[in-house]
Amino acid sequence: MIEKEIRVQTTDGEMTTFAVHPDGEGPFPVAVVFMDGVGYREQVKANARRFAGDGYHLVDQFREELRRNRGRGVVERMPGVAHGFAMADLPVYNRDAAERHFERTLDLWRRKRSMGPITQPPD
Predict the structure, then answer these.
(1) Weakest-pLDDT range from 13-17, 62-66, 75-79
(2) What's the CA angle centered on 61, arms 44 and 115, to 5 degrees?
(3) Main-chain dihedrals φ then ψ at residue 30, nearest 5 degrees
(4) Are 38 and 84 spatial neighbours (Cβ–Cβ below 8 Å)?
(5) Would you say residue 122 lies in a domain?
(6) What CATH number should be reported for the domain holding residue 67?
(7) What whole-number distance in Å separates Cα of residue 47 and Cα of residue 22?
(8) Residues 6 or more apart whose Cβ sits within 8 Å of residue 111
(9) Strands of 57-61's sheet, edge to edge?
(10) Strand pairing partners for 21?
């Protein structure tokens, strides 16, 4: 896999983002991973690497930047688990729920990818 950290200038100042994608020329579908309240750390990169292992180009970013650029997404709540359950470095980590999360996310991405590129509506 090819990994790099990028410093991005935002309206709130500079932030570090992490990008990872499989070896090779691509093209690879791009996916955005939101960091949790704990912030940027190795576990965020480990989760991004897991998705990249399925053929995606992952970038961690903030929700506001995505919203500002009209990104779309889905939020799913999983009853019986605490916020942060998919982060193996947190005490609330729940392996079964995390595996379900990764598999459901990858399944969603695969289905959307098979539909072709997403186009933005005109202003």
Answers:
(1) 62-66
(2) 100
(3) -95, 140
(4) yes
(5) no
(6) 3.40.50.1820
(7) 14
(8) none
(9) 2-10, 13-21, 57-61, 30-34
(10) 2
- Identity of the amino acid at 111: R
The full length of the chain comes to 123
CB 78 within 8 Å of CB 85 = yes
What range defines the domain where residue 12 resides? 2-114
CA dihedral 51, 69, 2, 87 (to 10 degrees): -40
Q: What is the pLDDT of residue 112?
A: 76
The CA–CA distances, whole Å, from 79 to 6, 63, 74, 82, 88 equal 35, 23, 16, 8, 18
Find residue 13's DSSP bridge partners: 10
What six digits make up the tokens of 111?
A: 């289905």
Domain count within the chain: 1
Q: Could you report the per-residue pLDDT of 39-58, keeping only the tens digit for each?
A: 888 998 998 898 889 888 87
Does a structural domain hold residue 43? yes
123: in domain: no
Could you tell me if residue 84 is inside a domain? yes
Residue 99, SS3 per DSSP? helix
Structure tokens at 49: 């690497």
Which amino acid belongs to residue 4?
K
Distance CA 80, CA 116 (A): 35
